[in-house]
Amino acid sequence: MDERIKTLAHNLVNYSCEVKENDKVYIHYIGEDTQELARQIIKEVYAAKGIPFIRFISNKVQRDILMECTQEQVELMAEVDGLEMSNMDCYIGIRGSNNVSELSDVPAEKMAIYDKYYNTPVHHEIRVKKTRWVVLRYPNASMAQLSNSSTEAFEDFYFKVCNLDYGKMDKAMQNLKAYMERTDKVRMTGPGTDLTFSIKGMNAIPCAGKCNIPDGEVYTAPIRDSVNGTLAYNTPSLYQGFTYENIVLTFENGKIVNAAANDTKRINEVFDM
């Protein structure tokens, strides 16, 4: 077993999720490449005197389900899986599909059914609200390819940033948190971007490896109706198996009034959902 995998599994269980005796831990791993990490997480959960539960998903098989799914079917899936999730104390999700675009040709209306009647009740309403959770991707060949990197070089990069001392990072973030919480007006500028908004009175939340790995942001949110201007993304954005590029969003008083991308029709369907 790669020592870096052992370190990552130990940190996920003992730092990110703080697994305690008799905690029930849902280990959700996607793609064959994630198996070694899932196995090591099971060992770490047992070492912490927790109780592991597993769920494996292949996105190839998931695609077959979604292509012809019905609302009634998805609601029953959510009822069954929601019962299991509601009995969990912790959730660790590992994504490592061999093809990040595996779900790209699932009809939009089918994805909408799955999001509304499965993801929302099982994950947004139960998992996010009721468990100590952390999610991450796995450094397989598919992920390395997206970074225009060899698999070995990408693995080295990945484990360096995922096995950081996140407790130390959390302490280092506190000054930025305080600065953001006494800030009112924000202006973001860059190529194609000129966006203004207010964060007055909003909390700033340090993110140091508790819910996502890798991590390192301090986030907040704007006062909704204060957002005005244009935001242009300078990197591709993968969502539901499709990679959006050249995304440009125009805001007026907090509402997106225009959205464009390499597939403008598709990205507007996402926002309209």
Protein architecture, described:
The protein is of the alpha/beta class and 273 residues long. It has 2 domains: 3-163, Thermophilic metalloprotease (M29) (Thermophilic metalloprotease-like, 3-Layer(aba) Sandwich); 169-272, no CATH class. 43% of the residues lie in helices and 24% in strands. The chain contains 10 helices and 14 strands. It has a 5-stranded parallel beta sheet with strand order 2-1-3-4-8, with helices on both faces. The chain has a 5-stranded antiparallel beta sheet with strand order 5-6-10-13-14. A two-stranded antiparallel sheet has the order 7-9. Helix 1 (3-16) crosses helix 2 (35-47) and helix 4 (71-86) packs parallel to helix 5 (108-130). The longest helix is centred in the middle third of the chain and has 23 residues, at 108-130. The radius of gyration is 20 Å and the shape is globular. The termini are far apart.
Order of helices and strands: HEHEHHEHEHHHHEEEEEEEEEEH
Query: How is the largest sheet built, in terms of strand order?
Result: 2-1-3-4-8
Classified by CATH, the class of the largest domain is Alpha Beta
What is the fold-level CATH name, i.e. the topology of the largest domain? Thermophilic metalloprotease-like
> Percentage of helical residues?
40-55%
Number of domains: 2
The count of helical stretches stands at: 10
Which secondary-structure class do the elements indicate? alpha/beta
Mean pLDDT: 95
- Strand percent estimate: 15-25%
CATH architecture verdict of the largest domain: 3-Layer(aba) Sandwich
The CATH homologous superfamily of the largest domain: Thermophilic metalloprotease (M29)
Q: For the report, how would you describe the main beta sheet? A: 5 strands, parallel
How far apart are the termini?
43 Å
How many strand elements?
A: 14
Rounded to the nearest angstrom, the radius of gyration is: 20 Å
Low-confidence region ranges: none
Envelope shape: globular
